[in-house]
Specification:
The complex is a heterotrimer of chains A (133), B (89) and C (165).
Chain A lengths: L1 H31 L3 H4 L1 H26 L5 H26 L24 H10 L2
Helix pairs in contact in A: 1-3, 3-4
Chain B lengths: L1 H25 L3 H26 L5 H24 L5
Chain C lengths: L10 H15 L4 H18 L12 H27 L8 E6 L5 H13 L3 E6 L5 E6 L5 H20 L2
Antiparallel strand pairs in C: 1-3, 2-3
Helix pairs in contact in C: 1-2, 3-5, 4-5
Classes of the chains: A mainly alpha (133), B mainly alpha (89), C mainly alpha (165).
Chain lengths: 133, 89, 165
């Protein structure tokens, strides 16, 4: 019984540390990446997983404490994993709408980000118009 | 062991929140700031859950759930406002 | 599967509501079941006018396997993204990818977009108005066509099979 308790404590501690390291890396990505679209990656993926890990640790801890399954925190986990992509999508949509600048190394030139001026080459312009319905 | 892990975890999350605050203050554009606030509420959920583990009590579960919901809804609302200039059309 | 009835327009939503209620109450006492079932029947009836047409899940088992695969991929993708973020010289190779969609149903497209955001170093950025192109931003990608093929084979094909559209 004591061995099981120690083992579970180790598992909980592992999840706590792993989760907080993930969340820290996610926030670090938010702080040090160069353009908005790259910053979006850290919080939307890594922070969500980090908090998910902490919630898993919480489930394990309270199940151990009450000596029975206690799955309340699962609700928050599922909610976060469903909503994180949605808010990331909306954020990038609003960034595209405001035509935020992107890093010069980025490949690909989406028409959403192109200016309406005639900076585009003729070829690009004809390609752009062919995509219109 | 758990006590020690809990302390380290809280410290790391606190650093994460400080990094988010930095982005809120510096962030060159509005979406940057919204993204930073969004991350901040996700981190604060984790901090509340950690506090619950610390106390060994689940009173704070509802608070975490409420923050998750309100944070998501407010992020969506502000994004919608930036996109359309209106929230409910 | 339970067939939709007049008093039970969306069986899947009802079951989901019941499960959420039981999780929220954190118990399986008779009273929780009773109140949960009541809510599971009443809420869909009240909110019915706001719902779009429900997607039909043809193969629930495939769906379960898809979820397991995505869960595994989330962990792998996170390790990769962490590597890129922690790289001191910042050698990320970002790119915008225009991904041609084959899926047509709204719900399936939503699931694909969410999967893309959560998994392999990519964030779905924009769905064009015609609903045929998904704009994806990738953090670190070598070959763009390779990435497109990967997404198609690993996720879109399975989703297409699940919803059969």
């Amino acid at each position: 019984m004591i061995a099981l308790y120690t083992l579970m404590e180790g598992v909980i501690a592992f999840f706590l540390i792993a989760g907080s390291i993930f969340a820290l890396i996610g926030s670090l990505g938010l702080a040090r990446m160069k353009d908005f679209y790259m910053r979006l990656h850290g919080p939307s993926k890594i922070s969500t997983l980090g908090v998910g890990c902490v919630l898993l640790a919480s489930i394990a801890y309270f199940s151990l404490l009450a000596s029975g399954p206690s799955l309340q925190e699962l609700l928050i986990t599922i909610f976060l994993f469903i909503t994180a992509p949605v808010s990331a999508h909306l954020l990038s949509k609003s960034a595209l709408h405001q035509k935020l600048a992107y890093d010069s190394r980025t490949r690909g030139n989406p028409e959403e980000l192109q200016d309406d001026d005639d900076e585009r080459t003729l070829e690009e312009a004809s390609q752009g118009s062919s995509k219109l319905p | 062991m758990l006590d020690f892990a809990l302390k380290i975890s809280v410290a790391l999350f606190a650093v994460a929140v400080v990094l988010n605050l930095y982005r809120v203050a510096v962030g060159p554009s509005l979406p940057d700031r919204i993204l930073a606030l969004d991350t901040m509420y996700v981190n604060s959920i984790a901090l509340i859950v950690l506090f619950g583990i610390w106390l060994g009590h689940r009173t704070y579960f509802e608070a975490a759930l409420l923050i998750a919901m309100l944070g998501f809804v407010s992020t969506v609302a502000v994004c919608k406002y930036l996109l359309r200039g209106d929230i409910i059309e | 599967m339970i067939r939709p009835r007049k008093w039970l327009p969306m069986p899947l939503l009802s079951v989901l509501l019941l499960i959420v209620w039981l999780l929220l109450m954190n118990g399986v006492a008779f009273g929780h079941w009773l109140l949960g079932s009541f809510l599971a029947i009443v809420i869909p009836l009240i909110t019915k006018p706001f719902w779009e047409a429900q997607p039909r899940i043809k193969k629930p088992w495939l769906m379960l396997r898809y979820f397991c695969r995505v869960l595994l991929d989330i962990v792998v993708a996170n390790l990769e993204a962490s590597k890129v973020i922690l790289d001191p010289r910042g050698r990320a190779r970002p790119a915008f990818i225009e991904y041609p969609l084959e899926l047509q149903e709204n719900f399936a497209i939503t699931m694909l977009a969410s999967t893309i955001t959560l998994t392999p170093g990519t964030v779905s950025a924009h769905l064009r108005m015609d609903g045929k192109t998904l704009l994806i931003h990738a953090l670190d990608v070598g070959d763009i066509d390779d990435m497109k093929r990967h997404i198609h084979e690993r996720y879109e094909r399975t989703l297409k099979e699940i919803f059969e559209c």
